[in-house]
Structure formats: structure tokens, C-alpha cells
């Protein structure tokens, strides 16, 4: 706790107001109805999505409407040489829009994949109404026939996962300063969703593969298909089916389907621990006791003398030791099993601004003289039960636990 409080003692930086407000969110009933809509047939889904997005395009929705032909031309007929990546949602291609010469990332949704018509519509609406430097920019979309395609700004460095968990042998590992910079920016994206958006938005799928990086390693959150409007008024949570990725779901959400912004804070803690350790949250290639990152870290959080064992070996010791302690304190606080003991994401941002500032935080550090804990006086960091280990060693399988509507 002391390390975390040390971070928090720094004076908060006054947050600059965003250039683009989200006045559209005053019409919350409209957005909420889209986010929770059900469809009777594939034909009605296609017709509804096309008509509603085009209708909104005349007002709130600024994203460009592309034809399938335009995006085929942009990607050279979705040539495999332009493939940037693929997952349960479909494939992402690099494309150049012929009319503007803008380089983009074109995500063609798999009709049989995890991301369906509802998720497609939610993502178009969310990214059209939400604007922040740490959220990916939606250039446009295509809803021709049964095609569902999203067009984003191109992020030159790919995802955080590419540089942290799937790092190629010829690629240098991320240094400590860059890791803290990425964590800070990603947290600011969540802060905007939680505390500026009205009503708040719960991201619900915070993970390394959804954090994209530009040429200077500035992070942006992407893939808003699972985003959910947060509780309003006197409501403490929203109830929904459990969606997300194994290992990243908060315990209370995984068990009850009760979703709050603190659920995102837990997921942030998981990713931040991945950033610090260089380990996947679920990695079946490791020895049994180390396959679940949270379970492995839990006893180490309790003994300061073991903190350096948690640093990514690829850093080769090149990091400020006290900053490591403070970073682990932030992660441990985010991973508290009880949601109400986790910090607000704005407090996390304040701590990370301090860590990312690259100040000399190593004065008067003696890592052998104190066996204190960073896990606080609460229930401790999240348990392994909050991170089911029923996935591949990449731990990135999207799940629909209950299988009914959102």
C-alpha cells in the first residue's frame, strides 16, 4: 500500500478538456436501445443495421460509408499479402483508400465469428460518438449485403501483444519507459470511457491484443464490439451475460454477470501485470504452478524481497527498482478481489503519470531490508478462480459463458 500511496501523493495534473465533446450521449435512450437490440432473422438484422446506420450517418455518425467494391480495391481484393492479423472476429488487412490515399486497417468480420451484427452496430456507434487520443479512430464501415467491415486508422506498430507477448526474436523488447508510457495511455483511454463519457462506458475486453500502437508507441484502445453502457442513477451495476477473454474478467463479473467500471480496472491490472512481467495471463506452456499469472503473482506480492523476480527477464535488470515496486503496487490494487477495494481508473492514471514521467524514483531504496506487501489490507490480489485456465496458451479466446442476450 505504501508504494501506491507514494504514487498517489503526487499532485494531480489538470486534465485538458477534449476537443470533441460527446453531446450525442444526451440521447442515451437511442444508444442504449441499439446496444441491447435483438433481431429475429438474418435478413432483418442486415436491413436494420444498414438502414439505422445510414439514418444516423446524416446526424451523429461521422464515419464514412464504404461500398464493398471500394474496400476490395483498397486491399487489392483482400490480398493475403496485406493481411495484418486475424482472430475470432475475422481478418484485418492493410488498405489504401483510393479517393484519399489514406492508409487504413480494414477489419472484415467473419460471418461465423465471435463478433456479430449486434457487436458491429455497437462498435460503429461507440467509436462514432467517442473521441479521445487513446481510442482508435473509426474511418468508416461497410454494410453491403452480408458484408460487415470496419475501417480504422492504421496503427503502424500493431498491437501491444506483438511487442510484449509475441515478440519476434529479431525485435528488441520494450524498455521500461515505453512500457509505462503504454500503460499510462491505455489507462487514460479507460478514464475517458469511465469518467468523461455520459453515461459511462464499460470497455469489457481490455487485453494486450486490443491495445494498438502508433509509430511512437502511443497506445489506442480498439475493438469496441463488447462495450457496454455503464450503470446510471442509483444503479450500482449492469447485469449482462459474461463476455470477454479468459483470464481478464473480474471475479465478480465472471461469477454473477454484474458489470461495473471496476471490472475494467481489474482487467487493466491483469494487462499491467503482463506489461511488468512479460508473461501471458494464461500460458499453458509454462510449469503448472506458473500457468495462471495471477495465481503465480499472488504470493510474490506479499514479499518485497521477491519483487524483482516479477520483472520481465527481457529487461535484463534495466529498470528503476523503486518504480518496479510502485508499478507492482498499482497492479496489486487493481487486482483486489473485492471490486470496491480497487482504485478508480483516474487514480491509476495519476500513479502512472508519475511512473511514466521518468523521474528519479530510486533514491533511498533497499530492496533487501523490507519484506512488506503491496497487496494491501483487503482480500489480496485477484485469485486464480477469477482467471479460468481453460484456454489455449495465448489466453485470447473470446467467450460467451451464458449464451443468452446481452
From TrEMBL:
Biological process according to GO: pollen tube guidance
User: Is Transcription found in the keyword set?
Assistant: no
Tell me the segments the record calls region Disordered: 362-406
UniProt keyword annotation of Transport present: no
This entry's Gene Ontology molecular function terms read:
ATP binding; protein serine/threonine kinase activity
Give start-end positions of Basic and acidic residues composition bias. 391-406
A Gene Ontology cellular component where this protein is annotated is: pollen tube tip
Residues annotated to bind ATP: 107
Q: Which residues form a coiled coil?
A: none
Q: Domain Protein kinase spans what residues?
A: 78-355
Supply the alphabetized keyword list: ATP-binding, Cell membrane, Kinase, Lipoprotein, Membrane, Nucleotide-binding, Serine/threonine-protein kinase, Transferase
Q: Where in the cell is it found?
A: Cell membrane
Q: How does this chain sit within the bilayer?
A: Lipid-anchor
The record's InterPro entries line, in alphabetical order, gives:
Kinase-like_dom_sf (IPR011009), Prot_kinase_dom (IPR000719), Protein_kinase_ATP_BS (IPR017441), Ser/Thr_kinase_AS (IPR008271)
Q: Name one Pfam family in it.
A: Pkinase
Similarity field: Belongs to the protein kinase superfamily. Ser/Thr protein kinase family.
- Protein's recorded name: Serine/threonine-protein kinase CDL1-like
Amino acid at each position: 500500500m505504501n508504494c501506491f500511496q507514494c504514487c498517489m501523493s503526487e499532485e494531480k495534473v489538470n486534465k485538458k478538456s477534449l476537443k470533441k465533446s460527446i453531446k450525442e450521449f444526451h440521447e442515451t435512450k437511442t444508444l442504449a436501445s441499439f446496444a441491447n437490440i435483438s433481431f429475429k432473422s438474418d435478413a432483418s438484422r442486415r436491413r436494420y443495421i444498414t438502414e439505422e446506420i445510414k439514418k444516423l450517418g446524416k446526424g451523429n455518425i461521422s464515419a464514412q460509408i464504404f461500398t464493398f467494391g471500394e474496400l476490395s480495391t483498397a486491399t487489392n481484393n483482400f490480398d493475403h499479402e496485406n493481411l495484418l492479423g486475424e482472430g475470432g472476429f475475422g481478418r484485418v488487412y492493410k488498405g489504401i483508400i483510393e479517393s484519399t490515399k489514406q492508409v487504413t486497417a480494414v477489419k472484415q468480420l467473419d460471418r461465423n465469428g465471435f463478433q456479430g451484427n449486434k457487436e458491429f452496430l455497437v462498435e460503429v456507434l461507440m467509436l462514432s460518438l467517442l473521441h479521445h487520443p487513446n481510442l482508435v479512430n473509426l474511418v468508416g464501415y461497410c454494410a453491403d449485403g452480408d458484408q460487415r467491415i470496419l475501417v480504422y486508422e492504421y496503427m503502424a506498430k500493431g498491437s501491444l501483444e506483438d511487442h510484449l507477448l509475441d515478440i519476434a526474436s529479431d525485435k528488441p523488447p520494450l524498455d521500461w519507459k515505453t512500457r509505462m508510457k503504454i500503460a499510462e495511455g491505455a489507462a487514460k483511454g479507460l478514464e475517458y470511457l469511465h469518467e468523461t463519457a455520459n453515461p459511462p462506458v464499460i470497455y469489457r475486453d481490455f487485453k494486450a491484443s486490443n491495445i494498438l500502437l502508433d509509430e511512437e508507441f502511443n497506445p489506442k484502445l480498439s475493438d469496441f464490439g463488447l462495450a457496454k453502457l455503464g450503470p446510471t442513477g442509483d444503479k450500482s451495476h449492469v447485469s449482462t451475460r459474461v463476455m470477454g477473454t479468459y483470464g481478464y474478467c473480474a471475479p465478480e463479473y465472471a461469477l454473477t454477470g454484474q458489470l461495473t467500471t471496476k471490472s475494467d480496472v481489474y482487467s487493466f491490472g491483469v494487462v499491467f501485470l503482463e506489461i511488468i512481467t512479460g508473461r501471458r495471463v494464461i500460458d499453458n506452456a509454462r510449469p503448472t504452478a506458473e500457468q495462471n499469472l495471477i495465481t503465480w503473482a499472488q504470493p510474490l506480492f506479499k514479499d518485497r524481497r521477491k519483487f524483482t523476480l516479477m520483472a520481465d527477464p527481457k529487461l535484463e535488470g534495466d529498470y528503476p527498482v523503486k518504480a518496479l515496486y510502485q508499478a507492482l503496487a498499482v497492479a496489486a490494487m487493481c487486482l483486489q478481489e473485492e471490486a470496491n477495494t480497487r482504485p478508480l481508473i483516474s487514480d491509476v492514471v495519476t500513479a502512472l503519470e508519475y511512473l511514466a514521467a521518468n523521474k528519479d524514483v530510486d533514491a533511498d531504496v533497499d530492496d533487501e531490508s523490507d519484506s512488506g506487501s503491496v497487496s494491501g489490507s483487503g482480500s489480496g490480489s485477484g485469485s486464480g478462480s477469477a482467471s479460468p485456465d481453460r484456454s489455449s496458451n495465448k489466453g485470447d479466446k473470446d467467450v460467451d459463458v451464458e449464451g443468452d442476450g446481452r
